[in-house]
């Protein structure tokens, strides 16, 4: 594959961000994480960020119109011509349909949707033990995937933080939103023949190897 347009699909904490980092390192294509983009807008204090924050803090999805707008701007940028990794988008049928229209306008295709399958019973522990880098977006886990130096990002050395929505109550709400609004997209992409399922409970490097085999 010359140009690789990939989507990582899965519940909160399934390992999308973790695997995106491996793909970036190997293939040099940008990660488009709507979650990271929204968090950046919150740190910058933009009006859009402040509005999105209300939904994110409650574990709810941000309105489609906001998300579709930011994706439209991002996918139109020059660096996406060599490929991209969608992480956390689309999350509703309206977003998936808008993405199809946008890709057509940009003369692009979606090559693969990689679903990381992880049972709900593992998700809360993963998310509550997560530590993230506010600078480069890398994520670690205090037990499953600790950073080389405690509290510091392996990639850029910044101090790691705990995301505001990474607490048990909010994760349970995010999981409900996932099952109600996002999980149905599994069939949407299966019908289009681009869906590949992986066991997201395997060891992190093992999953990365399986993804590289799929991408070639
Ligand atoms: P977002 O930032 O997208 O969060 P999410 O989808 O909930 O996903 P996470 O970042 O929690 O998980 P991940 O799959 O990346 O897992 P990770 O690799 O870090 O969205 C946040 C919020 O923004 C949403 O709730 C919503 O409000 C809003 N939003 C964003 N996009 C939106 C959209 N399109 N529409 C509407 N609203 C939107 O891994 C998790 C942990 O597990 C880490 O600690 C990691 O080290 C560990 N881990 C990873 N893989 C493994 C493994 N194989 N074994 C053991 N541990 C592992």
TrEMBL record:
Chain positions recorded as Zn(2+) binding sites: 133, 136, 153, 156
Major location category of this protein: cytoplasm
Annotated binding of ATP, by residue: 13-18, 130, 139-140, 202
An example Gene Ontology CC term for this record: cytoplasm
GO biological process, one term: AMP salvage
Residues that coordinate or bind AMP: 34, 39, 60-62, 88-91, 95, 163, 174
Keywords: ATP-binding, Cytoplasm, Kinase, Metal-binding, Nucleotide biosynthesis, Nucleotide-binding, Transferase, Zinc
Region (LID) location: 129-166
Adenylate kinase active site lid domain segment(s): 130-165
EC id: 2.7.4.3
Localization (cell): Cytoplasm
Domain of life assignment: Bacteria
Region named NMP: 33-62
CDD domains: ADK
Reaction catalysis annotation: AMP + ATP = 2 ADP
Stored Pfam families: ADK (PF00406), ADK_lid (PF05191)
Pathway annotation: Purine metabolism; AMP biosynthesis via salvage pathway; AMP from ADP: step 1/1
InterPro entries in the record: Adenyl_kin_sub, Adenylat/UMP-CMP_kin, Adenylat_kinase_CS, Adenylate_kinase_lid-dom, P-loop_NTPase
Subunit structure: Monomer.
Family: Belongs to the adenylate kinase family.
Function: Catalyzes the reversible transfer of the terminal phosphate group between ATP and AMP. Plays an important role in cellular energy homeostasis and in adenine nucleotide metabolism.
Domain writeup: Consists of three domains, a large central CORE domain and two small peripheral domains, NMPbind and LID, which undergo movements during catalysis. The LID domain closes over the site of phosphoryl transfer upon ATP binding. Assembling and dissambling the active center during each catalytic cycle provides an effective means to prevent ATP hydrolysis. Some bacteria have evolved a zinc-coordinating structure that stabilizes the LID domain.
Protein name: Adenylate kinase
Organism: Cetobacterium somerae ATCC BAA-474
């Amino acid at each position: 594959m010359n140009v690789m347009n990939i989507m990582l699909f899965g519940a909160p904490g399934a390992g999308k961000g973790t695997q995106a980092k491996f793909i970036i390192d190997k293939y040099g294509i940008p990660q488009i994480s709507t979650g990271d983009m929204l968090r950046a807008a919150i740190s910058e204090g933009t009006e859009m960020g402040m509005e999105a924050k209300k939904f994110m803090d409650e574990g709810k999805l941000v309105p489609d119109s906001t998300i579709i707008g930011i994706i439209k701007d991002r996918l139109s940028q020059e660096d996406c011509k060599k490929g991209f990794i969608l992480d956390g988008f689309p999350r509703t049928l309206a977003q998936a349909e808008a993405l199809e229209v946008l890709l057509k306008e940009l003369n692009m295709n979606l090559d693969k949707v990689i679903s990381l399958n992880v049972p709900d019973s593992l998700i809360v522990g993963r998310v509550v033990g997560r530590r993230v880098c506010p600078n480069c977006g890398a994520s670690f886990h205090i037990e499953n995937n600790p950073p080389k130096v405690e509290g510091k990002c392996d990639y850029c050395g910044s101090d790691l933080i705990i995301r505001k929505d990474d607490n048990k109550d909010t994760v349970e709400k995010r999981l409900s939103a996932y099952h109600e609004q996002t999980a149905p997209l599994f069939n949407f992409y299966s019908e289009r023949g681009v869906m590949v399922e992986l066991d997201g409970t395997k060891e992190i490097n093992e999953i990365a190897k399986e993804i590289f085999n799929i991408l070639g």
